[in-house]
Automatic annotation (TrEMBL), chain A:
Coiled coil: none annotated. One of its GO terms (biological process) is intracellular protein transport. Gene3D superfamilies: 2.60.40.640. GO terms for cellular component: retromer complex. PANTHER family: VACUOLAR PROTEIN SORTING 26 RELATED (PTHR12233). The lineage of its organism: Eukaryota, Metazoa, Porifera, Hexactinellida, Hexasterophora. Belongs to the VPS26 family. This is Vacuolar protein sorting-associated protein 26B. Keywords: Protein transport, Transport.
TrEMBL record, chain B:
Belongs to the sorting nexin family. One of its GO terms (cellular component) is retromer complex. One of its GO terms (molecular function) is phosphatidylinositol-3-phosphate binding. Required for retention of late Golgi membrane proteins. Component of the retrieval machinery that functions by direct interaction with the cytosolic tails of certain TGN membrane proteins during the sorting/budding process at the prevacuolar compartment. Binds phosphatidylinositol 3-phosphate (PtdIns(P3)). Residues 32-156 form the PX domain. Its main location: cytoplasm. This is Sorting nexin-3. InterPro entries: PX_dom (IPR001683), PX_dom_sf (IPR036871), Sorting_Nexin (IPR051074). The keyword Iron does not apply. Keywords: Cytoplasm, Golgi apparatus, Lipid-binding, Membrane, Protein transport, Transport. It is found in: Cytoplasm; Golgi apparatus membrane; Prevacuolar compartment membrane.
From TrEMBL, chain C:
The lineage of its organism: Eukaryota, Metazoa, Porifera, Hexactinellida, Hexasterophora. It is found in: Cytoplasm; Golgi apparatus membrane; Membrane. It comes from the Eukaryota. Belongs to the VPS35 family. Its main location: cytoplasm. One of its GO terms (cellular component) is retromer, cargo-selective complex. This is Vacuolar protein sorting-associated protein 35.
Length: 327, 188, 795
């Protein structure tokens, strides 16, 4: 914009993060298909570094230099109207004049609250960035520096109630399935079993589909985007009554995010396991169950500044119609 | 494949199977036995009243069917009737029937038209395919029209459509599977 | 790649599908190996996974699928070897064990898991027990019978050298014992058997038979489980009995599938050692009771018995422990089977009993009561079935069963001690009874056993009655005369085995035999009675030899000769005149030898009576006369009076022969009687040269009357030979003149004979005769003593 008005880039702005090279980088896929790798921060981590402004012209008149830390949710359908849920501001320089050459401004945000995880979805984007603004009379010089944020959760080990349910079509196909937990961390393994109580259809195979639903907007007006992350075959052929088929499904193989619910009343990302049986005439019998995914703190990462968010044992509310599961 | 996070031994955890399969069940004949053969095509009548029909021979061990074995004779229009009933009354995606072969009903053909053996044979296999798909459908199995078509000597087209009640009053403490039918349309 | 559809039906389809699949396997295997060579493990595993996608197919017949499997498992060997040799160390296996499970399709995933899991065990880093358990449990995911069977077979193949076994092995690996292996195989076996049985329900019911055939082709896959169990060194008899076998039998019984039951039991019997079977006979046999009616239970029981028989015969085996009452177990359990299992037909029952019998005879050769017990059970079985239901196959089995003790004992005297043998044998049909009788006789003859008492003779002959007497159930059709005479000759030989060391008892033995044989009908007499006559004559000689020890010997001899006479009369009344004539001659000689003149004379006169009354054929007459003359010449017990009567009788009889040539020859023959006949009084030869020459002259006279030239010359030559004989014996009545005269006569006649074969023979005969004379002449040149032809001039 600045260039358009004929002033050109009178200054180059670079935002440096302390120890950036040592930070773990997280890759995200952008809407145009390209990928970007961003340094990873956790909730409560300090953000510090310096801003380097290289003034190319003789001098640069400004009415203040600001550094902001922004957490922002943006619907791709409505880019012009992003919602900022976090914004911290530091004044790097009072209004005045910057002479030609390099100027450095150290900065530090302590114990920064980063309540949500970065998310680059189909319809929505939740991102964090540092933004330097050199305020000028006509056009500000703005520079953004994005970072990645992951939220770590810690569930009590005792909260391991399994998901168990009998499901069927009367007089035709009855099974009982069980997944060992209702909440899985992203490197977790889903253990389960399918117990066949009645089989009067000619089953050909059985699989579990891992499904991601991205829901933007609130209530009924929300837009839902469904994506099958993977299909995982768990049975080949037709079982008879009494057969018990084991499931061991490693989540680590896939690119997953934690389950996100109603993030700032803007969007949700939910995961489901869809148990699908296929009969010889290619009819599909399926049952979809939501599972909660969460990010577990790496063992290697010592209890650093990122304080795990402790969530109580409340189950998800909208499982599905009947709730006969005993667990 | 990204690297797994296993440390120590391999992950051999499984859910404990609390119910050991009863050997009677393990070795029992599958309870999904359902076999319908369309056989013995015969041509009856003369002139405008000439038509072919087929024996519909059914063997099953599915309890919803009254008879374990039954045989009826049906003609093409009966299959059309069944298809119509199912399409009207159930949410089933009914597979296609073999074509009506209108061209074969035109006059001045050099051959036997609808009654050419090769045509009858092709139609027979297609009808067999059709009826096996329908009869294996859990929802179709609950339709009166299917039972009448398969097991009653004469189709009463003035019947009262409805569902078959289960022979025993079973309280199923479970929720329904969702059922999607998708037939691949195959041309014969 | 597709999992849809039915197996391609035609042979060409199958070949093409298989070829294509194998080609894809090779290609991926090549890529896999290339990656492994460069230590790119993950890429290698990925290629292996792609290769394994082929195993998901539904298009191949079991046979083609098997071929595909062989190719794939061969290639997986490379991967496995690589993991064990190169990759395994350094705790990288746990990750790999997880990584292969990311594979989306279950069939390739499980093949990989098995490959990695077993390699893991082999590098000895993980818990063997957990991994084995995990593999066998995870394989449940494949419920498709064919694919599941092969997958689980692959599991067995890979774990072959990785199963925990004895204690020493535990130290090397850290965990897992033989009980874990047993549990592992039991689980896998149960699942495989289930899949194998379930195969039966695949596809349309009209293809049932085809599927049964296919199932049979795949049986070894299931049987491999049992082989693995039998390979485990850590299993002893106790463990086998308490743990291993019950686990197997449970599946066998419950599967209720005839193909599976039959195969698995046979497999159990063949793969486990006999020592184990001995400890578990009851469980195996009781399992048989619970089998499906289409199972050939008999085959199973018999193969078990056969193994144990071999075992007990093997000198290295140590034999069957005395605390295992093997006979009792088998007899009880097999009886139960026969009585309670509806599919065990009488024929099967008999076949099983036959094997039990074999066992009893091998293991307890001295326990005749066991055999009797079994035979009476057999009888009960046979009696419990309506006669109409007993078919030929059943009877054949019964026949086989009855031969078992014959072969085992090789002693017919033991057979006749078996009380139920005869009644059971009576259940056989005519032909089988006869076959068995022949078998018994043959055994008697081959073993050379002698039947010493009348009771035993009675019993033995009773057994072979079908050969001796006409049977009520005998078919009316034509009898093959060759077979018949063979059989009867055999019976004849049996007579020679009826031998008692005690003379008096021998007499009773023969009387018993006579009682049987005389009921045999005319067609059998000619075979059975003559040996009896000879046996009696043998006894005559025995009595005579022992006469000093037995003062009643003469009386007894009389009895025997009476006995002989009766027999020969029976033969004679059957119209067998020539035979009886000969037998009378033998009897006469026999009596002559023991110096009972009256009896000898009586027999001779019987012979003459037969000659006169019964023999009319001139050839027969001639040979009878020859015999009679020969007989009389040999006898030495006749006094002058009797001898005179008889030699005249011979001469007269000879003279009465119809044909001149016969007359001539017989009369010439009679000359012997006057020369070398003996009479009791002087016990010297008659040497009546006068009468000799009279006879010969008479013979020449008769020859002269012969109309036919050739025959006449022939007779002349023959008579000449008589003359020469007597001349050489220094019979003074024979002179050189007589000889020269006869020779001249012959020389005169010879040219008239013409030239034919007969004439040539005659010429030759004469030449030889003359040569003999010339030879003697040369020999005697210079010597003075004895007759010689020195003065004989031969023109």
């Amino acid at each position: 914009m600045a260039g358009l008005l004929g002033f050109g880039n009178t200054a180059d702005v670079i935002v440096f993060l302390n120890e950036e090279e040592d930070k773990k980088k997280i890759e995200y896929r952008l809407e145009d298909g390209t990928k970007t790798k961003l340094p990873l921060f956790y909730d409560g981590d300090n953000l510090s570094g310096r801003v380097k402004i290289h003034v190319k012209s003789n001098k640069l008149q400004h009415s203040g230099v600001q550094l902001e830390f922004v957490g922002q949710i943006m619907l791709l359908s409505d880019k012009s109207n992003p919602q900022e849920f976090t914004s911290l501001v530091r004044q790097l320089s009072k209004p005045g004049e910057l002479s030609q050459g390099a100027h450095e401004f150290p900065y530090e945000f302590l114990h920064v609250e980063k309540p949500f995880e970065s998310f680059y979805g189909v319809n929505v984007r939740l991102r964090y960035f540092l933004r330097v603004t050199i305020e000028k009379r006509f056009a500000n010089i703005v520079k953004e520096k994005p970072i990645a944020v992951q939220t770590l959760h810690l569930y009590p080990e005792t909260d391991q109630s399994s998901l168990k349910m009998e499901v069927g079509i009367e007089d035709c196909l009855h099974i009982e399935f069980e997944y060992n937990k209702q909440r899985y961390h992203l490197r977790d393994v889903i253990l389960g079993k399918i117990y066949f109580l009645l089989v009067r259809v000619k089953i050909k195979h059985m699989q579990i589909d891992l499904i991601r639903k991205e829901i933007t907007g609130a209530g009924n007006s929300g837009i839902s985007e469904t994506e099958t992350v993977t299909k995982y075959e768990i049975m080949d052929g037709a079982p008879v009554k009494g057969e018990c088929i084991p499931i061991r499904f490693f989540l680590g193989a896939y690119e997953l995010t934690p389950t996100m619910k109603d993030i700032n009343k803007k969007f949700s990302v939910r995961y489901y396991i869809n148990l699908v049986l296929l009969d010889e005439d290619d009819r599909r019998y399926f049952k979809q169950q939501e599972v909660i995914l969460w990010r577990k703190q790496d063992k290697t990462k010592k209890n650093c500044s990122g304080v795990g968010l402790i969530i109580g044992g409340g189950t998800s509310t909208d499982m599905d119609t009947a709730k006969e599961e005993k667990s | 494949m990204s690297s797994g996070g296993a440390t120590g031994g391999p992950k051999t955890d499984r859910l404990f199977t609390d119910k050991k399969q009863n050997l009677d069940d393990a070795y029992a004949a599958p309870s999904d036995f359902l076999e319908i053969d369309i056989i013995h095509p015969e041509t009856h009548g003369l002139g405008k009243n000439r038509y072919s029909d087929y024996e519909v021979l059914m063997r099953t061990n599915i309890p919803i069917f009254k008879m374990k074995e039954s045989s009826v004779r049906r003609r093409y229009s009966d299959f059309e009737w069944l298809k119509g009933e199912l399409e009207r009354d159930s949410k089933i995606l009914v597979p296609p029937l073999p074509g009506k072969a209108l061209a074969r009903q035109l006059p001045f053909r050099g051959d036997d038209g609808l009654f050419e053996p090769a045509f009858i044979e092709a139609r027979r296999t297609a009808l067999e395919d059709f009826v096996n798909k329908i009869a294996g459908h859990p929802l179709a199995q609950n339709e009166r029209c299917l039972h009448m078509f398969l097991q009653e000597p004469i189709i009463d087209k003035n019947y009262i459509p409805g569902k078959i009640k289960c022979a025993f009053d079973m309280i199923v403490k479970c929720c329904l599977f969702s059922l999607l039918s998708s037939y691949r349309v195959t041309s014969h | 790649m597709t999992t849809q559809g039915e197996p391609g039906s035609s042979l060409e389809d199958q070949e093409k599908l298989l070829d294509d699949a194998v080609r894809r396997v090779k290609r991926n295997a090549f890529d896999m190996k290339r990656c492994l060579d460069q230590s790119q493990v993950m890429d290698g595993v990925n290629h292996a996974g792609t290769m394994l996608d082929e195993m998901r197919t539904s298009l191949l017949s079991p046979k083609s699928y098997y071929m595909l499997y062989m190719n794939v498992s061969d290639e997986l060997m490379h991967l496995s070897q690589f993991l064990v040799d190169e990759y395994g160390k350094g705790n990288r296996m746990p990750d790999l064990y997880e990584l292969v499970q990311y594979c989306g399709n279950i069939v390739p995933r499980l093949y990989l898991l098995v490959t990695v899991g077993t390699a893991y065990i082999k590098v000895r880093e993980g818990s063997r027990k957990n991994i084995l358990r995990d593999l066998v449990e995870m394989c449940r995911g494949v419920q498709h019978p064919l694919r599941g069977l092969f997958l689980r077979n692959y599991l067995l193949q890979c774990t072959r050298l990785a199963l925990p076994d004895t204690g020493q092995d535990k130290e090397q690996y850290g965990d897992g014992g033989v009980e874990d292996s047993i549990e592992f195989i039991h689980l896998n076996f149960g699942e495989m058997n289930k899949l194998w049985v379930r195969m039966q329900y695949q596809g349309h019911s009209r293809e049932k038979e085809k599927r049964e055939k296919e199932r049979l082709e795949l049986r070894v896959l299931v049987g491999t489980n049992l082989v693995r169990l039998s390979d485990l060194q850590g299993i002893d008899a106790e463990c086998y009995k308490k743990q291993v076998l019950p686990g197997i039998l449970d599946q066998v019984i419950q599967c209720r599938d005839p193909i599976s039951q039959e195969y698995l039991l046979e497999c159990v019997i063949s793969v486990f050692p006999d020592e184990f079977h001995l400890q578990t006979l009851e469980s195996i046999l009781r399992t048989c009771q619970k089998l499906h009616e289409r199972v050939a239970i008999r085959k199973i029981v018999v193969s078990l018995l056969e193994r144990l028989i071999k075992f007990s015969e093997n000198p290295d085996s140590g034999g069957i422990p005395s605390d295992i009452l093997i006979f009792n177990i088998f007899s009880v359990e097999v009886s139960e089977l026969i009585q309670n299992h509806k599919s065990v037909a009488t024929v099967d029952g008999l076949a099983m009993l036959s094997s039990v019998l074999n066992l009893a005879l091998t293991v307890y050769p001295k326990e005749i009561s066991y055999v009797d017990q079994l035979l009476s059970f057999c009888l009960k079985c046979v009696e419990s079935v309506p006669e109409a239901d007993i078919n030929n196959i059943t009877l054949k089995e019964l026949l086989k069963l009855l031969k078992v003790p014959i072969d085992a004992y090789n002693h017919v005297l033991t057979i006749i001690k078996l009380e139920t043998y005869a009644p059971l044998m009576a259940r056989l049909g005519y032909q089988h009874r006869k076959d068995l009788s022949v078998y018994l006789c043959q055994n008697l003859i081959d073993t050379g056993i002698e039947i010493p008492t009348p009771q035993e003779a009675e019993e033995f002959l009773g057994l072979i009655e079908s050969l001796i007497k006409k049977q009520s159930d005998e078919p009316t059709g034509e009898i093959d005369p060759e077979d018949f005479s063979e059989e009867q000759n055999l019976v004849g030989q049996v007579v020679h085995r009826l031998v008692s060391p005690v003379n008096d008892q021998q007499y009773h033995v023969l009387t018993t035999a006579k009682k049987y044989f005389t009921e045999g009908g005319e067609e059998r007499l000619r075979y059975t009675l003559p040996p009896l006559v000879f046996a009696a004559m043998k006894l005559v000689r025995r009595y005579y030899a022992d006469k000093d020890a037995d003062d009643k010997w003469e009386k007894k001899l009389q009895h025997i000769f009476q006995f002989i006479s009766q027999i020969i009369h029976s033969i004679s009344s059957a119209g067998l005149s020539e035979l009886s004539l000969r037998l009378f001659i033998q009897a006469a000689l026999s009596a002559d030898r023991v110096h009972v003149e009256t009896i000898a004379y009586e027999f001779v006169s019987q012979a003459f009576m037969i000659y006169e009354e019964e023999i009319s054929d001139s050839k027969a007459q001639m040979s009878a006369i020859t015999l009679l003359v020969g007989m009389l010449e040999q006898m030495g017990s006749l006094g002058e009076e009797n001898h005179e009567t008889l030699r005249s009788k011979c001469a007269v009889t000879s003279n009465k022969l119809l044909r001149k040539s016969n007359q001539c020859r017989a009369v010439a023959l009679c000359s012997n009687l006057f020369w070398s006949g003996r009479i009791a009084e002087s016990n010297a030869h008659l040497r009546d040269g006068q009468r000799v020459v009279e006879c010969l002259r008479k013979a020449l006279k008769i020859a002269n009357q012969c109309m036919e030239a050739a025959a006449q010359v022939q007779l002349f030559i023959e008579v000449l030979n008589y003359y020469l004989y007597y001349y050489e014996k220094e019979c003074e009545s024979v002179t050189i003149q007589i000889l020269e005269q006869l020779i001249r006569k012959i020389n005169d006649s010879l040219p008239h004979l013409g030239a034919n074969e007969e004439a040539e023979q005659i010429h030759k005969h004469f030449q030889l005769t003359i040569q003999h004379v010339v030879h003697r002449q040369k020999l005697s040149e210079g010597s003075t003593g004895g007759p010689n032809y020195a003065k004989l001039k031969i023109i």
